[in-house]
Amino acid sequence: MSSSIQTTIIRQPADGDTALTPNNKSAEVIHENRAGWLMLAPACILLVLFIGIPVALAFVLSFTNARTISPNPTRFIGLNNFTRLFSDPTFWRALLNVAIFAVVVVPVQAGLGLFLAVLINKKVRSSVFFRTVYFLPVVTSMVVVSLLWMFIYQNDGMLNQVLEKLTFHHWTAVDWLNNPQTALGAIIVMSIWQAVGQHMLIWLSGLQTISAELYEAAELDGCDAWHQFTNVTWPGLRSTRNMILITITIAALSLFTQINVMTQGGPRDSTTTVVFEAVRSGFQQQEMGYASAITLVFFLIIMAITAVQRRITHSN
Amino acid sequence: MRMNKKRSLIRLIAGIVALSGMVSLSGCGEAARQEAKMQGNEITLWTHTAGSEAELSTVEDIVADYNSSPDRKGTVKIQSFPQSSYNDSVISASTAGNLPCLVDVDQPNTPYWGWANILAPLTDKALLKRTNQLIGSAKGTWNKQIYTVGYFDATTALFARKSVLKDLGIRVATVDRPWTKAEMDDALAKMKASGHWAYPFEMGTADNKTEWYAYAYAPILQSFGGDLVNRKDYQTSQGVLNGPEAIEFANWMRSLVEHGYINSKGGSDTALDFVNKKSGLLYGGIWTMSTVQKYAKDSDDIVAMPMADFGHGSVAGGGSWTVGMTPTCNNKEAAMSYIRFSLKDKYIARMAKAGMNIPATVGAQNLIPEFEPGGSMQIFTKISSKYVKMRPETPAYNFISTEFRKTIGDIMNGSDAASGLNKAVNHIDGNIKGADGYIKK
After folding, report:
1. CB contact under 8 A, A175 and B434
2. Is the reported ipTM for this assembly greater than 0.90?
3. Which of A111, B251, B283, B355 is the most exposed place for a label (fewest CB within 10 A)?
4. What sign has the CA pseudo-torsion B173, B174, B179, B184?
5. What is the pTM of this model?
6. A92 touching B, CB under 8 A?
């Protein structure tokens, strides 16, 4: 302790002085190191405990025949889990479903969020009211939302009833969640409705960082609303855009809650997802090794996609 | 510098160790209690009945009686869990090594839990003697040993209204003469043609998160002549789950959807739907009767019948909640003496009555008017005793059940029966091999 006080005392006059002796320099480094380590410690411990160790475990377990409860010792089985995984059509179907989900949800949800944000960014009296309304689904639990939408999507549910009224009884009821053609679409619509408010809010915070002077200047230059948007708003939202893109993509790829509540991956795998398959294998079927293999492959896929996205957004 | 880095790391670790030491010190009170538990012969019973007041209060009464009885070998303490999270709680407790002495077990899980060292076989002679007096389906056995015992059993049946059957010219099936497959198909066709219901038949297809598919549809498969797994040595499903009989069964299930007899995703409360006349024929559990007796104004018109005979005899589901002992229990004598104490006829009768299930002894059946000869529930006792077939007594059952559920669900939604069943058989056989045949060493 005394040495550290000493170094601080010595450090004061030496500030900005290039003639710092090597001895003093290393002492200062030690001091800074110690403080740095201490401040890093809480985050590091939590990261290692809740991310590092589980990831490492999943990595190791994916090469074993580990089961949740078993009297037999766990043993390494090489790449068996992976060969089984890649030869399982359900896994490929899950990947395809997740890809479709992401390809639709990412642009539509981001675009709709931006549209809503631009609408309520106007300083009118009702904007707070609309902000609240759009944000309500976000603060509602996904499980609750899924249950409610299950009723909406039922054969005699609200959606079919409304369509029937609108078409003067020419509409034949569709069992939205129980039809392989419509199930994934129904889940996509609901998911966008649920999460769009959150991204609207992030867009909104981005919009409010753009200085009003820029708009004034654009107006003086004779820009109409559309040109203002493309020349002022859009470039001003660059960092917000990147963040939204990455968060929506990751959230879309890890689709699970809706599936677990509404369809259990059916009918005929039309809504199954990679995370759902992992949970099914790991917890319902208690094959931890296989489930770990699924999550490991999924982890690598997400890493790759995020890396590509970063590349693209940076080269811009 | 490297030295210092190392030193600060060591300090960090020392700090963590000190911190965790403090945490464990603060847990000292709990440790002392644990110690007292061991000294004072207190044993804990985990039950899944937190959501069912009638059953929980009965368990509480039995435990209170035991704790004040002169023959007690220890004190029993109850800890109740909601049913939906119960199995997960037991499995995590087993991995963490904190199992209580006594646990509730859903009967089909008994072999799996016995294999995984969550349950120990019952050995007390007096207890085994009493166990022999119970109906067969109220016991959980594996490897020729009894692991768990139950107070009651549930079963499955068809429910219809006599007036409806009479109007449509359909015979009321009896325990001695269930419908044949032709009669069943004919009944469904007549009901569909009557136009009273969008889907005349309800068999709980929406219940695809639980074990219902395996519990209720495997009996139909067995009546067709197939099975979930080859029961000779429980090593493969080849030939029984994908044989010609199984394919016939799967095609029949799909034809129910194709003909519009059932919805492949039916109602969420099938019993209430039936009471409200949203379906004409219901395939459900014995618990349907609780809803009928509570809500149906025409409950006298409602009749329970055994499932149809598809060629190899009518088959009814069996196996309900039971209680067993863990291998880590430190006072097995007390645990088994409690189980024996709780198997008195009067307690069996109360437990069975709480959920309106079939009491596990004849003595107890005679204590409940509904189950006495001539009582309104006696039909279920007859169906169960005549047609019950237990779910395969193998640790693989848990996995088989999830595969069966998914496969039959897919087939009802239009997948090809043969390839779907072949895939399920491959998965099941792979799982059994991966667990070294589920043989206890």
Report:
1. no
2. no
3. A111
4. positive
5. 0.84
6. no
